[in-house]
Write a structure and sequence with these properties.
Chain lengths: ~375, ~375
Amino acid sequence: MLNFNYNIPTKIFFGRNKIEVLAREIKNYGNKVLFVYGGRSIKRNGLYNKITNILNENNINFWELGGVDPNPRLSSVKSGIKLCRENKIELILAVGGGSTIDCAKVIGAGYYYDGDAWDIVMDSRKIKKVLPIASVLTLAATGSEMDSGAVITNMETNEKIATIHDGMAPKFSILDPTYTFSVPKNQTAAGVADIMSHIFEVYFSNTKEAYLQNRMGEALLKTCINYGKKAIDCPENYEARSNLMWTASLAINGLLSYGKETEWSVHAMEHELSAFYDITHGVGLAILTPYWMEYALNGFTVDKFVEYGVNVWGLDANDEKYEIAHNAIRKTREYFNLLGMPSSLKEVEIDDEKLEKMAKQATIRGKLGNFKVLEAEDVLNIYKSAL
Amino acid sequence: MLNFNYNIPTKIFFGRNKIEVLAREIKNYGNKVLFVYGGRSIKRNGLYNKITNILNENNINFWELGGVDPNPRLSSVKSGIKLCRENKIELILAVGGGSTIDCAKVIGAGYYYDGDAWDIVMDSRKIKKVLPIASVLTLAATGSEMDSGAVITNMETNEKIATIHDGMAPKFSILDPTYTFSVPKNQTAAGVADIMSHIFEVYFSNTKEAYLQNRMGEALLKTCINYGKKAIDCPENYEARSNLMWTASLAINGLLSYGKETEWSVHAMEHELSAFYDITHGVGLAILTPYWMEYALNGFTVDKFVEYGVNVWGLDANDEKYEIAHNAIRKTREYFNLLGMPSSLKEVEIDDEKLEKMAKQATIRGKLGNFKVLEAEDVLNIYKSAL
C-alpha cells in the first residue's frame, strides 16, 4: 500500500426529506447564496420551487445562475464569478448533477483568482482559496458531491480539462435518492457507466498489495451491477436508487484510490469525445471501457483481469486465465449493453475524421496511465478499435 | 437503506515516516500539548524518544500523562483533566492503541465539564465541547483513531461504558504500519478479533437493503482473514500490517454502519467480562462471537448467515442453508483459534460465579441488539454456552 493523506471533509445528509437541513447548514457559512442549476429538470420535478421556498422562508438572499449545461462551459463559470463578486456571495449552492456542481466549484475558486478563470482549470496550483460550496444532488454519477475535482469544457478550444483542489470539496451535500426517481433511463444508464468507470480507473492498478481497496472496489462494482438495470426498469425503486447514489459518492471520494497508483486513461480518452462531439460523458465511457480493457490485457496484466472476473463476475477461478480475462471483458460490455448503452463510436455518430487529433490532444499533458501506459498512438488504436 | 448523516472529519496521514507531519499539524491547534501514552512499549521501541524530540525541536510545550492502562480507567481521565486545566493545554496527543486514545478523548471532553467526569461517560449528552484530540497509532484494533467514541472503565463500580460525541473524533491521526511491527502475537490476534467484531456488529442487521454496506463489510472481513495470520507469523510484513491498520479504521468510522440498524450485542457482553475480570477486549470478543452467532441463528436470521458464509468464506451457495450457516460459524471459530485465541471462558479463568450479575449489568440500560434481541436471560445463556 502506498503512503497517502486522507481528507474527506464533506458532510453528507443522506435520505428522504434530508432537504430539511438545508437552511440550517447554509447559515453556518452566511446569508448570501449563489444558486446554480442546470435547467428544465429541477423546474419540472418541483425541486426548484422547494429550494427557493426554503431560501425565502429562512431569509437567505440568493441570486440565480441557471442553464448550466452538461459538460459545463467556461462561459458559465465566468458568469458565475461575476455574479458572486457583484453580490458578495458567501456560499455557492449547486442543485443538480456533476456538471452543475463542477461549475459551482470553479466559480468558487475563480472568485479569488484575478486572472482568466481558464488558468485555474489548466493549472490547479493557481487556486489559493475557494468560496464554500454545497450541493443538492439529483443524479448518481460523477461523485462531484463528495470530491474536490471539477471538469470544465472550453468550447472555443475544444478542451475538456479536470482540475482539483481540497478547497473545492463541498462543505455539505444533500443526497435524497427520491430526487433521482425522475432521471430518464438513458441518463441513469450513463450515470452507472460513469460510476463503474471511476472504480475501474483505480481498480486496475499496479499496486497489488492494496488488498483492502481492491475488495472495496469489487463491493462497489457489484452494487452497480446489482442495481443499474433495476433503477432503469423501476425508476422509483428506492433500494436501487439509494445504493447507486451512495456508491457514486464513495467511488471517487478517495476511499478506493488512497494508497494506490491510479489510471484515469479512459476518462482522459473520453474527455476528447465530449470535447469534440459533446456526447454524454457516461456514454463515451461505456463505449471505450471494454476496448481499453482488451488493449490493456497482456502477460503483465492478465492476473488483474482474472481477479476482476472471478471476484466481480463470479467466473470460475479454475478456468484458463486468458479465458477468464476475455469473459470478464465480454461481461462488462454485455452489461453496458443491458443498460441500453452503445458499444461503438459509430452509434454516437463519431467517425474516424478527428481521431488522430483527439488522440494527440488526449496525451498533450503526457502519457496516460500506469497499469497500461498509453501514448498517442495507443489512444488512436483504441479509438479505432471502437469505431 | 436508512437515512443517515455522514461526518468523518479526521485527517489521516498513512504510511511510513508520516510522523514527519506531526509538528506542523499540531501547530494548527496551538503550542501546548498533553502527551498521553500507555507505558513500556513506546519507550522500548523508540517512539517515545522520537516524539519528544519532535516536540522539543519544534518548541512545542508538552506535559506527560503516561501509564494509561488497557481498559482505561476513570482515574487516568481525572488526572489528565487536572493536567490540562493547570497548564492550559490546547491539544491532546495520544500515542498508543485504542485505550490511550479513548482516555485522551474523555480528558478532552472532561476539560469543559464542571462535574464529575464519570457523568459524561454515563451520559454523552452532557458533553458540550472537546479539546482538540490527535493520535499516533501503534495498534490496529479499536478504530478509535478515526471515530468519535470512547470506552472508559470505572474500577470502583466494575462498569465499562462507551460514550460518543462528534467533538471527540481526532482532528488528525498518524498511521504508520511500521509502528505495529513490534506488537506481540497475542495482541495482534486480539486486535484482529476486535476489528472483525466491529464489522460483525453492523454486518448482522435487519437492514437488508443496505447492499453496498454489506458488500463493503465483506471486503473488510476478507482483508482481516487474509492478513491476520500473516501479521502474526511475520510481524514485519508491511503489506499485512498496512492492510490491517487501515481496515481497523474503516471498520468503525461509520462507513459500514451509516444507513443500517446496528447490533453491538457482543461488545456489550464483552464489556462485562473486561469490567469484572480485566481480560483483553479482543480476547473476550473472540470467545463470545461464535457463541453469539449460534444463539442468534434461527429461521428469521439464517439467510444472513448464508450470505456471510457464501460471500466471506466462499461456501457453496447450493448447500442446505442451515448447513452453510453452521459451517460459517465453525469457520469463524476456527479462524480465531488459528490466530491463537481461546474459545471458552474457562481458558481465561472465568467460571460461572459472576455470570448472572454480569448478564444483568450488560442489559442494565435496556435490551441488546435488533437482529437478535437479547434480554438478561439470553445474555446469561450465551455466557453459559461459552464456559
